[in-house]
Amino acid sequence: MASPSWIILSRKATAPAAGDDGLPQGAALSLALAAPPRVTTVKLRPAACPVEPDPPCRHKFPCVLAADPSGLLLILTPPPLSERDEGELRTSRDARGVERTIRIGRVPRPRYVVCDLSSATATATASPVPDPRELIFNNDLGVIAAPGGGGRFMVVEFQAIVGGREATLLCFSSESGKWARKKVANPLPRWMWTFSDIVSHGGKLWWVDCVAGLLACDPFAEEPAMEYVQLPAGDVSNGVFRCVEMSCASHGAPKVSMRTLADPSTAEWTFEYEASFSEIWAGDSYKAAGLPNKAPVLALVHPDNPDVVYFFLEQRLFGVDMRAREVVECEPLDPAKSQKKGSYSSGLVFPFELPPMFSAEHDHVACAYAIMHNKQAYIRFDRSRVWIGLLLRAYHTPLS
Where is the DUF1618 domain (predicted)? Predict the structure, then answer.
């Protein structure tokens, strides 16, 4: 069977214990391609992600933060067990004169790595991103390939303070190996930006705030110009942004509508369609899928066919052709990866179009990072390096 052209990638990665990961000797990352609507999960070996993270750390599991269409994945991993930070002793007295001493320590910071899935040569790399020394705000990081490709990239976070007309792009360049700041305008100074996703599209990074709208810029520009597009916001499908809105189901069957942002420069959203789940529930394809007449949870939009929208419902992920009101795909979710009842959301997965090297004619490529005959993709790591990768530069330069 031919490899899929796109996959539904889980945000949550896994880090099995050594010997239990099913990976070949020397491999540190596995991507077993599953045809949609099944979910594909990144599997990391302890060489890339510790099985036992440092207990005080905030992030206990690895996760995929962002992706670039060229095949780049930005992955956050928890920090490994380290020597205990003795911290700082602080003494205070209460109103009764009772003295108390407490120890203040640092919370271990997560680590970041960019994996390049696009190369089918021995120079394929997984590049560690150096610690920016506590300068990252909320892990609202995106990754974007450099113009001209060549494996070069930039990791970027948009940082703004409420009330400030100026914001900052915190940028790491793989070419310079340095973090740097770039000043940009803050389109909504009084707004507290909360981003649900960061998307690389059309040579720009797009920060998606599901209430305020979209921010976009080219971080490679000497003086990036920040663009703002008001709501609605949504996924990228068939080369343009799509907004899918789902009405509340408290007064009957939910309704789903779609709008398209064909030209971001106009900031105009074009209405595409609206469909009620009452029509979908009444269809033979829905009944044949054995799905209950309950309101589902919106998951994602098909990256090539915007008429197909995917939903979560009772441990299943299914796709609906909204114009035809027909269920076109339905698969049970892996019980080991299932969420607690009521905890499903579109933030758990995202559509990822595979680089050309993942096509069927490359099934037998034998290289450092390749699609093997059983459709497993591996990245091999040189453990003699500080972190991971085959051809890594040691990035230890301070913020410029």
Answer: 207-310
Cβ neighbour number for residue 277 with a 10 Å cutoff: 23
Q: For residues 358 and 371, is the Cβ–Cβ distance under 8 A?
A: yes
Q: What is the C-alpha separation between 370 and 264, in angstroms, rounded?
A: 36
Is 236 a residue whose pLDDT tops 60? Answer: no
Question: Is the entire prediction scored with pTM above 0.70?
Answer: yes
SS3 content of the chain, % helix, strand, coil (to 5): 5, 40, 55
Band the pLDDT of 398: cuts 50, 70, 90. very low
Cβ neighbours of 9 (radius 10 Å): 21
Q: What is the CATH number of domain 6-81+108-380?
A: 2.120.10
Gap between the Cα atoms of 267 and 289, Å rounded: 39
Nearest alpha carbon to residue 74 among 172, 141, 137, 157: 141
Cα angle for residues 352, 57, 379 (degrees, 5° grid)? 40
What average pLDDT does range 88-99 have in this prediction? 81
Instruction: Please write the tens of the pLDDT for every residue from 32-41.
Output: 788 899 999 8
